[in-house]
From TrEMBL:
<dbReference type="Pfam" id="PF17677">
    <property type="entry name" value="Glyco_hydro38C2"/>
</dbReference>
<dbReference type="GO" id="GO:0009313">
    <property type="term" value="P:oligosaccharide catabolic process"/>
</dbReference>
<dbReference type="InterPro" id="IPR028995">
    <property type="entry name" value="Glyco_hydro_57/38_cen_sf"/>
</dbReference>
<keyword id="KW-0378">Hydrolase</keyword>
<feature type="domain" description="Glycoside hydrolase family 38 central">
    <location>
        <begin position="518"/>
        <end position="596"/>
    </location>
</feature>
<dbReference type="InterPro" id="IPR041147">
    <property type="entry name" value="GH38_C"/>
</dbReference>
<dbReference type="GO" id="GO:0030246">
    <property type="term" value="F:carbohydrate binding"/>
</dbReference>
<comment type="similarity">
    <text>Belongs to the glycosyl hydrolase 38 family.</text>
</comment>
<dbReference type="Pfam" id="PF09261">
    <property type="entry name" value="Alpha-mann_mid"/>
</dbReference>
<dbReference type="InterPro" id="IPR011682">
    <property type="entry name" value="Glyco_hydro_38_C"/>
</dbReference>
<dbReference type="InterPro" id="IPR011013">
    <property type="entry name" value="Gal_mutarotase_sf_dom"/>
</dbReference>
<keyword id="KW-0326">Glycosidase</keyword>
<dbReference type="InterPro" id="IPR027291">
    <property type="entry name" value="Glyco_hydro_38_N_sf"/>
</dbReference>
<keyword id="KW-0479">Metal-binding</keyword>
<dbReference type="GO" id="GO:0046872">
    <property type="term" value="F:metal ion binding"/>
</dbReference>
<dbReference type="InterPro" id="IPR037094">
    <property type="entry name" value="Glyco_hydro_38_cen_sf"/>
</dbReference>
<dbReference type="InterPro" id="IPR011330">
    <property type="entry name" value="Glyco_hydro/deAcase_b/a-brl"/>
</dbReference>
Amino acid sequence: MHDNRALVEARIERFTRERLLPAVYRHRSPLEIEAWEVSDEPVPFAEARRQPYVPFAVGSSWGRPWSTVWFHITGTVPSDWNVDGTRPEVVVDLGYNITLPGFQAEGTAFDPQGRIIKAIEPLNSYLPAGEPGSAVDVYLEAAANPNVAGTFTFGVTELGDKATAGSAHVYQLRTLELALLDIEVWELVQDVWTLAGLMAELPVTLPRRLEILMALDRMVDAVDPENVSGTAAAGRAALADVLARPAYASAHKLDAVGHAHLDSAWLWPVRETVRKVARTFSNVLALMEQDPDFTFAASSAQQFAWLKQYYPELFERVKAQVAAGRFVPVGGMWVESDTNLPGGEAMARQFVAGKRFFMEELGVEPLEVWLPDSFGYSAALPQIVTAAGSKWFLTQKISWNETNRMPHHTFWWEGIDGTRVFTHFPPVDTYSSDISGRELAKAERQYAEKGAGTTSLLPFGWGDGGGGPTREMLAAAQRTADLEGSPRVSLSTPQRFFESAQAEYADAPVWSGELYLEFHRGTYTSQAKTKRGNRRSEHLLREAELWASAATVLAGGAYPYDALESVWRTVLLQQFHDILPGSSIAWVHQEAERNYAEVAVILEGIITEAIAAIAGAGDDVVTFNASPFARNGVHSLGASVEAPSAASIVTQTAEGFVLENSAVRVVIDARGLIVSMLDRIAGRETIPVGETANLLQLFRDTPNQWDAWDIDESYKHSGVDLTEVDSIAITDDGHGVRLVRSFGASRLEQTLWLDGETGALDIHVIIDWHETQKLLKLAFPLAVHADRAASEVQFGHVYRPTHANTSWDAARFETSAHRWVHVGEPGFGVAIANDASYGYDIRRQAVPGAGTSTVVRVSLLRAALFPDPDADQGRQEFRFSVRVGAGIADAVEEGYRLNLPLRQATGAADCVAAPFVSVDAPGIVVEAVKLAEDRTGDVVVRLYEALGATSSGMLRTGFSWIRVDETDLLERVIDRLAVATVDDDGVALTLRPFQIVTLRFAGPGR
């Protein structure tokens, strides 16, 4: 018998496309349409309803990029549509140019009272229309969001900035009418889609595949193409037997969780995300009315907060479903943040702010951390997750690795302090599944724990731009619940999945250290102004909370709870994984920079007022030090008269310029390059013979795929050393060297000097940057033989190899660090600190006749074209320090020194007799001092062990207290004072390596 399977498959596909799909709606009827175009930014329903509407015809164009048009739709459902097995609907096509939801026009439908009905999007384009004979009266807020996604990779788009997006209409209203849904035909289409998808994934030789093919062929025979409605039941009967065959006993199990990954900003501004939340959540509520088994998981407290603020009626409906256990808040964070770049306290506050909102507003505490799309995961996260009271972690993004596949899908993830969190990585490799046969088969095929575990999680629902699950997806889940050849799919929740998975596989393998994403390495550098704004905001918040706490407790001031909470929410929002990493449209980053400027004004005001209250009356200059380390005689976390620091000596010689003091001698040649950096105490040269440091290098930066996201290793093939200097001279104050370089269309000014106290070489960089698709790095070759480098992460540091022995090592050719990196041999090291940079590459290189040296290169700037063609253009500023003869403790101190400059005010010289908080162990660092979140006035102190070694010390305070408790990050008392004993002198601490400890001090009147 000849093989005609291809012909049969073609017959089935054409019959479905040309006969079944057009018959899903039996009849259509026109509606009256009027429109009103909003002149600028979106307006609330109440304002839109009052406006004058004018007639609008299907086929007409509408929508300038980023504009909003309100359509008023009226009519009557034909009374003769009262037919069994049918349902009237309003069908809308706003002019979609691709099928994927979330990246183009969308709409929100309201009833005349302003109640949201549901959203209109590609692949979800219907509204309920009521019974036959009833009136239709709908207001549709249509968002003309341009298709920015259509210019991915090297495309240049002006659409990401409303000012440059143009005024021409970008959409045409194709369809807006009443239609009568034939339920039986729709069900038949779902049967066919499920079976055809399953069949395509089965081996050609498997009898089950042929069985499905023959059943689908019989379905085509059974359905009359001239009377699809009348014969659809016969078509379904032809498929009933193959749909009823149960799954194999060994079939993989999938816990399907309704979800809508919704980026808080990306290829749209934050204001559009607010509307996307309403659209997505209203779609979910509409589905819940239809399917009692459907549950939905949504992360990001920020998005729920927007709903409460802008759509209170919808928020109350969501809240009711949360109480019913069907609408499930997950994640526990304020947003799905990046985890490489936020500082330690900011990472903690993601959970503090997020969980507080969920508990106070919705009465639930999420126990799983939900970060499917962030660009790699810090090794500090397991401890932070656990300290926040959470138990489980989920991600998906590691499936994007370029080089190495993660060996596990269910595992224990161990962080830098040894804390482990039960982790799952769904093998379906997407957070937006449509429950297709292809994706189900992929999940089963790729699941790494076969023979040990049996279940994985399947997040389903359109994502990135929102949209969420559809009725078609729920139909697919119902059909694959127990279907031969397919994994078993059951509608579930994250908690149900994690509880069963952990019970089944409690001895899962362990992955230790960071979950490094071998992709999107450019996000450590893109949009430098956004990154500087984040770093500056984090440290201003530290200062504001510290000094406001001291002013409140010591001087009786009022703690600015509301202002600080508002600022924290702004900063936490902008740590979202497409804002802080620099991968959003221009509009998003312009807004972020404005927000950071406002944050700085607010926090500087709080700091100024607080230190004035602490300083008191007087004419003495009082210096305030917010660092956990003493500076120039000013004790840590306190204030006193500053002792002057010794200035370095600068001389000009035949070999260039020499900066020197008792600890270090730095020689800068006539090109502004460092040719010698002598540690006088150790008697050791730090710059390898023949090498130069402070070397700027410019590389071509044209990644293969994601422009703003990626740095490809091939960038190294085209580097140019920038050694030409326009001018170089001793600074006017005589304490440093200033030089100017020009290259391409850019100009750079550097000032170098020695810090009078630490001896570190400080480098201040100002760049007027106007390059395109270039990567600028600053290189420091060091005469240190280091097989690994330390990089600061939240509450500690990680070691990464400087070699490329394995493919895992080689893939880490660009890495992230916070305030410092350190390379060293036993007894000698070098620390390089920064005030705004995050991207590094640190590798060994051969030195002829002298073994190897270690080269530390800091990534300063990029110039991506997509999604923001003006990314990084204009004035940029950086500051670095290089400290020779440094250990890890020195690196930690340098990081705080550069990021927390001393402050001064006039007042009484003895205004503070003792530091507000101090610890006498250099390894125990005070990260935050604040008043308690519950506004009782208790003082909260967060500390961590910074050196990676067990550390003991005494914590003392400059304020009185009557009780101290150890708490979790949410300031809930925990029964774990094994790390602390209390006596009259203070609190004696013993912390394990990198341990985070939060202490809560209650005092008289507090």
